[in-house]
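Students often ask why we bother encoding 3D structure as a string. The short answer is that it lets us treat folding as translation between two languages. Here is a chain of 304 residues written in the first language.
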Amino acid sequence: MTGPLAAPTPAADKRAAFRAGLASGCIQRFPGAFNPLVATLIQEIGFDGVYVSGAVLSAELGLPDIGLTTLTEVSGRGQQIARVTDLPVLIDADTGFGEPMNAARTVTVLEDAGIAGCHFEDQVNPKRCGHLDGKAVVSTAEMVRRLRAAVSARRDPDFVICARTDAAGIEGIDAAIERAQAYAEAGADLIFTEALRTPTEFEKFRDEVDTPLLANMTEFGKSELFPAATLESIGYNVVIYPVSTLRLAMYAAEAGLREIYAAGTQSGLLDRMQPRSRLYELLRYERYSEFDTNIFDFTLGRDQ
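And here it is in the second language, the structure alphabet:
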């Protein structure tokens, strides 16, 4: 019997599945998970992978998304999430947490954490949220060095290295396309262009870049929220919903807390809460009980 403490699928198999998904012709849907329990739910519902957002991790820590988190914090949360799911996990590695050598170390640490892939961006450090104004990008040559260092450190060839460019909103879409092409030549397996606005821009990028492409469908940003089927028809390979689950949870938590504060009781909120039985189902309580029984089901001999 497989123990319940971790998902049984090895990290190498998850990475191979991510690679296969990129080549499948079907768009891979990766909702964001702000904790391992949400990742469990993402798998149960039937999505293709799990995304771990740097903005979400920062928000959980009560920090803005401006590059304040560390590799240790990001890899630790990534490992916790990857542990519970059989799905590939793609994680936000910001600008690589330093110089090109730091980006290289980031890849080795994330591989050891069981992650299937990560993305590096071409912003100046400290970075800003990709859908805010006032961003700055490094030169193409500097980002290429960052990516080459990351690629050189990869031990599992199936580990996906994604290059994100924020240049579209700063230098224009043609410059972003040129950067994407250079990043692909440097070894990036997947290209993530932040803050494209219209279907025409998404289509233009697909026409000009041969590498697999990722679309970011974050709410309240600069991009229209296209259905996955539309993105697939354009030719995109991956779509992420980075902050959706956190926004849903925080909205519900705030509404509930305000009612408890006003009413002095949570009794009117029970129909909006996950029941204990459903939580236990997600946590696989029965499997833990079976595992415990099998492990400790023995009899001591007289001489023991």
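Translate back mentally: The chain has a mean pLDDT of 93. Keep this in mind for the problem set.
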